[in-house]
Amino acid sequence: MQQDITRVLVIRHGETAWNRESRIQGHIDIPLNDKGRWQAARLGAALADEPLAAVYSSDLQRAHDTALAIGAANGVRVTPDLALRERHFGEMEGLTHDEIAARWPEGARRWRARDPEFGPPGGETLQAFYARCLDAATRLAAAHAGQTIALVAHGGVLDCFYRAANGVGLSVPRSWAVTNATINRLLFTPQGFTMLSWADDRHLQEDAGLDESSDGLVARA
């Protein structure tokens, strides 16, 4: 029934300096750079008329500050939720891809192959990360049946949401973009998530972003 449907906007944070350096952020609390702050402001303006009942975000500042721009434009308080954090990459955090490959060749191979059972030293497995993200999204969406909410998080988190909404397995290589500060729309019912639209960047005037995910960082148009 219509009253059971939750409209869910899922949004990746604006750009950071480490995005540009292809350096793994994970749980390290890296701020937005100048471009990221500009993207957040554009995002807030684009969503100013959205009927948001709630805005939730990762507590990491790059996501939280992006969410604050949305909340300010809508007059909605931002609620941080630790379950919306990026995947915990443990000892890989702060390193580039080349540094990771040099230090853990087999680990890097399993990571790039999207092995669901692989976890970086001290970090999360892909399987556990996916379960955490989907549990959080389901919990928050179910609490707002019939309303519209925004979830502001990270590249890897949005990748999980896309897979859940489209029935794509964890090991399947990604063929879709997860870019900074674009607008992605899902529907939630008690049966799960479905996708309405993905990677709407009109408010950024075709400005390019950088994509961070559990696969790594790649440039996206």
Structural write-up:
The chain has 221 residues and is of the alpha/beta class. The chain has a single domain, classed as Phosphoglycerate mutase-like (Rossmann fold, 3-Layer(aba) Sandwich), CATH 3.40.50.1240. The protein contains seven helices and eight strands; from the N terminus they run βααβαβαααβαββββ. A six-stranded mixed sheet has the order 3-2-4-1-5-6, sandwiched between helices. Helix 2 (34-46) runs parallel beside helix 3 (61-74). The chain starts with 5 loop residues before the first strand and ends with a strand. 43% of the residues are buried.
Set out the fold topology:
Layout: E1 6-12, H1 17-20, H2 34-46, E2 52-57, H3 61-74, E3 78-80, H4 97-103, H5 105-112, H6 126-142, E4 148-153, H7 155-166, E5 183-189, E6 192-200, E7 209-213, E8 216-220
Parallel strand pairs: 1-4, 2-3, 2-4
Antiparallel strand pairs: 1-5, 5-6, 7-8
Helix pairs in contact: 2-3, 4-5, 6-7
Short key terms for the protein model shown above:
221 residues, alpha/beta, Rossmann fold, 7 helices, globular, disordered C terminus
Compact description:
This protein has 221 residues and is an alpha/beta fold. Helix content is 34%, strand content 22%.
